[in-house]
Write a structure and sequence with these properties.
single chain; about 180 residues; alpha+beta; 6 helices; about 30% strand
Length: about 180
């Protein structure tokens, strides 16, 4: 069965509805990394609570035939001057002068990797967004560079680097037009 996608928008009830399944699937997707402070479930839950209250929050979850979450993505709108951009250093003003979608998290469980599910979730998250650009940050070492190459195949280009917290690895900051 092809997993069903559900979209959630930035309302308090949507955040409440999405929190438990998002945390559950995050823990499964990131299981090998959960011992690291930046990837701990409690750290993720704190970030999700903060991001879910920010403007333009949206999420997409994929569910299998038994209604278990098997993939996810979420993000929110960032404006010029937002700390999202500030952490990247000198970013071209054409990207930061208008609202953009910051893709904060995306992942799928092991059985669904390589099936195109991540791209379906990504595209569903971007559907109907009004921001001109979508930006994300990726650990360039993830999968020996494979994860970054996947994003490049989706049209993303590196525009800088970021280290969001002392516990975080240095991340490649990437961007692409929202439509495309």
């Amino acid at each position: 069965m092809i997993p069903r996608l559900r979209r959630y928008t930035g309302t308090p009830s949507a955040l409440e509805e999405v929190t438990a399944p998002l945390i559950a699937v995050y823990a499964e997707v990131r299981a090998p990394l959960l011992h690291l402070p930046n990837y701990a479930v409690s750290t993720f839950a704190e970030r999700l609570a903060r991001h879910g209250r920010e403007p333009g929050f949206g999420a997409v979850l994929a569910f299998d035939a038994d209604d278990r979450p098997v993939g996810y993505a979420y993000g929110n709108t960032v404006e010029s001057g937002d700390r999202w951009w500030q952490r990247m250093g000198d970013v071209d003003a054409r990207f930061t002068s208008h609202p953009a979608l910051a893709l904060k998290e995306i992942g799928v469980t092991v059985p669904y990797r390589g099936t195109g599910l991540a791209r379906r979730i990504h595209d569903a998250l971007l559907a109907d967004r009004t921001e001109a650009y979508v930006s994300l940050m990726v650990n360039a070492a993830a999968g020996d560079g494979k994860v970054q190459r996947v994003y490049e195949s989706w049209g993303y280009a590196v525009i800088g680097t970021s280290r969001p917290s002392p516990d975080s690895p240095v991340l490649a900051a990437m961007i692409r037009p929202t439509a495309g």
